[in-house]
Specification:
mainly beta, Immunoglobulin-like, Glucose Permease (Domain IIA), 12-stranded mixed sheet, 3-stranded antiparallel sheet, 3 helices
Length: 300
């Protein structure tokens, strides 16, 4: 019996972990296992360098979505008398490549009830400046909500906090954007992800469950040319069935154009430079709660 253990930490802000282990047995079988230690689903893409030295129980390269705190595995049958080459490369991506977004979901505005905000639409910075990206992006959509200094930012939908950056120290003034700014990423029930950025203070922790309308941050923007604000985008992973090139990734990132619940009672996308008044009705806050959760919420 021969055992070899490979333990690899992916260079990711979430420290997602892939563990692979194979053991040569009497029937020449090996097992490749994946474990996701994060509070949201992850998609893994595994490519073996020389798949001709063994047979696999799954189609290779291997693409799979692993649920939060979950695992996945497949078997490899080695050719008798040959030590297989199990060297491999891999990528992991936050999200489920089989996500089925609810495009007409009624999101809340991320500001306090009865407060006004004006919105702006943000450019895709990478595309605008012709920056090369490994992952394909489609349907780009990101919003800027104007705020006042010290305003509280609220979750637009129920979810789990899966990433937090809260140690930003911007050096200059008059930023138009910064990838170094504080941000929060929240995973929703349909495996879409809301990313909130330009924050002066973060009020939640990774792994925390938050309700729609719950305070999550304090607005930032002191060093931005456009002033105090919060920026929001909602995205999801999608599967690319026939990549153009052999080395192209089989997943991409797509964006939702969110529909917001407005004080008029309408649910619709926001219009550029319009002023909106925020409202957080109970029926929207409790929309994704189970009967047990709703009872607990109403009895608080």
């Amino acid at each position: 019996m021969r055992n070899i253990l490979f333990l690899l930490l992916i260079a990711s802000p979430l420290y997602a972990q892939v563990e692979s282990e194979w053991s040569k047995t009497d029937d020449n079988k090996c097992v490749f296992s994946i474990r996701n230690d994060e509070p949201c689903p992850y998609t893994y893409y595994v490519k073996f360098n020389n798949k001709g030295s063994f047979d696999s129980s799954v189609r290779l390269p291997y693409l799979t979505a692993v649920k939060k705190y979950g695992d996945s595995s497949f078997y490899i049958t080695c050719i008798k008398g040959i030590t297989p080459d199990l060297a491999y490369t891999y990528n992991c991506f936050m999200g489920d490549c089989n996500a089925k977004p609810v495009f007409d979901y009624p999101y809340l505005l991320p500001i306090s009830q009865n407060k006004e905000t004006e919105i702006g639409l943000l450019d895709n910075f990478s595309e605008k400046h012709n920056m090369k990206r490994n992952m394909k992006t489609k349907d780009w959509y990101a919003i800027q909500f104007k705020t006042n200094k010290g305003d509280t930012i609220y979750a637009v939908r129920r979810g789990v906090v899966c990433d937090v950056k809260d140690d930003a120290e911007l050096e200059y003034n008059d930023y138009s954007m910064s990838t170094k700014d504080n941000q929060i990423t929240i995973c929703h029930q349909d495996n879409t992800f809301a990313r909130y950025s330009v924050l002066s203070e973060v009020l939640v922790k990774k792994g925390q469950e938050v309700e729609a309308g719950e305070p999550i941050a304090i607005t930032g923007g002191e060093k931005y040319a456009s002033g105090y604000q919060v920026r929001l985008s909602i995205s999801y992973l999608y599967k690319i069935d026939n990549p153009e090139k052999e080395d192209d990734l089989p997943v991409g990132s797509a964006y939702v154009t969110p529909r917001f619940y407005l004080s008029s009672g309408e649910v619709k996308p926001l219009e550029l430079k319009e002023v909106y008044i925020s409202t957080h009705p109970q029926e929207i806050i409790t929309k994704e709660m189970s009967k047990k959760e709703l009872k607990k919420y109403l009895n608080r």
